[in-house]
Every structure is written in C-alpha cells, then in structure tokens.
C-alpha cells in the first residue's frame, strides 16, 4: 500500500496551477508596460504616509454616500449594490484609469434586526477576484450569526478594470500600489460609513491573499478596535512577486528595458541603455523588492485590539510560505494564527467554514 503525503500533493498542485497560469506564457505577464513612470514616484511618496511615522493618518476619511439599488430580498435578508466616487486623493484619481473612478460595493444584510445589534465585515478582493459572487458565498452563511457582509470591488478588477488590461495582470508596477492605496482608502471610508451612518455595533475587515494584505493594513490603521482577518496572506507583496509563483509571471525583461530607458532619458545616452548602463535582471528584482517593501504589513501599527486579529494560513501553501505568516504574528503580539490543511488554491475552495469561524470568533473578542 502506497502512502500519499497530502501536504506535498497540495503544494505540488499550487505549483501546477501556477505553471499553467503563469509559466506557459499564453497570457500577458504582470507589469508588461513597465514601472509606471511618474505615477510610481507619486505612489511611493503617498504610500509612505500610511506608516506610523507619518504625521497624518487621514482620519476621519472622506465620507461616502453610496447610491443603492436592491438586487433581491427575501423575508430574512436583502442584497443591495451601491456605487460611490472613489475616496482617493485627487492626485491618485488622476493616476487611476477612468474605469476605476467609481467604486462598487455589494451589501448583504439580515432583515428585521437593527444594525446596532449586528456586526458587519468588509470583504476585500484577492488577486483575480473580479466579482462579488465568491465573497458573498463566503459571507452568506454568516447571516444566521447576525453578521452582514459588505463586498468591495477593487480598482482594476471587474467593472473597474481598464479596457486595455487582460484579466488580473496589472500593466505597471504603479498599478499594484494604486490598487492597494485606493482599496485601503475606500475600505476605511466604508467602515466609517458603517459606524457613523449605518450604526453598526461591531465591524470587521477580511480578505483572501492580496485582499488579506489590504485587510491587515486597514485593520491596523483603524482608530478603534475592529476584527481583522487576513486569510492566506503574506506579510508583504515582495513574497509572491519576488519569491513565490508570481515571479514567473512578471515581465522582468520589460522592467529592465524600462529602467534602462529611464536612465537613458536622465543621462541623455544614445546607445542601447540596458547595455550601456549595465542594468541586470537581479538589479531590477532588487528595485522591485524595494518598491514592494512599501506593502510590508509588519511596518504598520499594531491594531487597537490585537486579540481580535486572526490570521489563517495554509500548511502547504505554494504561494505564501509559513515564515511569512509567522512574521505577521510576530509583529502583532496578541494576535492568533490558525492553520488549515492544504495549499493556497485548494484552501480557497475547501476551508470556507474555517474562514467563517475565524470571523465569528474575532468579532466575539470585541
């Protein structure tokens, strides 16, 4: 009888999935149009304002007034969709594609219960999550616990995706920071709306993978205790793009040529810039690591109630190594890490109950 190591199977499945999706070169890679020029310079300055040494944390955030329409309702629940102007700084709005200027949100609530007796959790999108559907399925069963679900559509995704972008592959490095900064600003405004306008008693923020990174940042910056639930999330975008599977889906040659062209422009070189300046792929990777270090959650403040922070990691994740999850807990003493058996991809489908339990438990600690 042959013994099968299921952990290894899950790990291998992550890499097979990554190979089919990223290494076959059938689709457009990440950052196929380079660094983003002056947009990247702007984003690097503005993202630094989120860190604890910044003088202003922008609270309260810009108020939102979503225009709601009812999608469906039953005797016990209601689903509405809302639209509002992104709450980003005007400089960021100018940098965002026009398709991303208006934010979309789905709001699934129990009926016949007042908000102050309920909780609401804002769900943020992981890479490639273009619709509301998956996160609504995750949140739907929580209605029986009197927990409402609010699902935010990220810039560059779904109906906010630029017309020239294919799938989830962002065209510039600056797009990744723009997506993150806009998502954080919009999520903070939605939490403020839930508290001041809708009157919810307890609130939380959660997300899967990339959405988990953004959720951790939002939870860190919120001025009062909220449940914070990063699922299958690294401590930084450096992990998937420079160490994990996404490094095979990144247009390194394009980034190298773009870096060389910038140098050529600055120094007025006339020969081939990449050859003249001697820029190597490893130098380009170091530059990307430096830029993406701005997403390092361990640099963010400890949330107001770290006991209401629950990280959920996968034991055999081919995308997010165990050490990256543990970095998060180390940075936020008092938080909890839970492990589900499986890989990154399989856990998306197999462990919704574990994610829901983490949400219920974290809200109970408020």
Keywords:
40% helix, 16% strand, alpha/beta, two-stranded parallel sheet, 366 residues
Strand element count: 9
Share of residues in strands: 15-25%
Q: Spans with pLDDT under 50 lasting ≥5 residues? A: 14-18, 266-271
Helical content band: 40-55%
Q: What's the helix-strand series?
A: HHEEHEEHEHEHEHHHHEHEHH
User: Sheet bearing the most strands, described?
Assistant: 7 strands, mixed
**Count of individual helical segments:** 13
End-to-end distance: 50 Å
Give a written overview of the molecule.
The strands form 2 sheets. Strands 1-2-3-5-4-6-7 form a 7-stranded mixed sheet, with helices on both faces. β8, α11 (322-331) and β9 (336-340) form a beta-alpha-beta unit. Helices cover 40% and strands 16% of the residues. By secondary structure, the chain is an alpha/beta fold. The model is unreliable at 14-18 and 266-271 (pLDDT under 50).
Short note summarizing the structure:
This protein has 13 helices and nine strands. Strands 1-2-3-5-4-6-7 form a seven-stranded mixed β-sheet, sandwiched between helices. A two-stranded parallel ribbon has the order 8-9. Helix 2 crosses helix 5 and helix 5 crosses helix 6.
Topology:
Blueprint: H1 6-23, H2 38-47, E1 67-73, E2 77-85, H3 90-95, E3 102-110, E4 119-124, H4 133-139, E5 147-152, H5 173-198, E6 202-208, H6 210-221, E7 227-231, H7 238-243, H8 252-267, H9 273-277, H10 281-292, E8 310-314, H11 322-331, E9 336-340, H12 344-350, H13 352-364
Helix pairs in contact: 2-5, 5-6
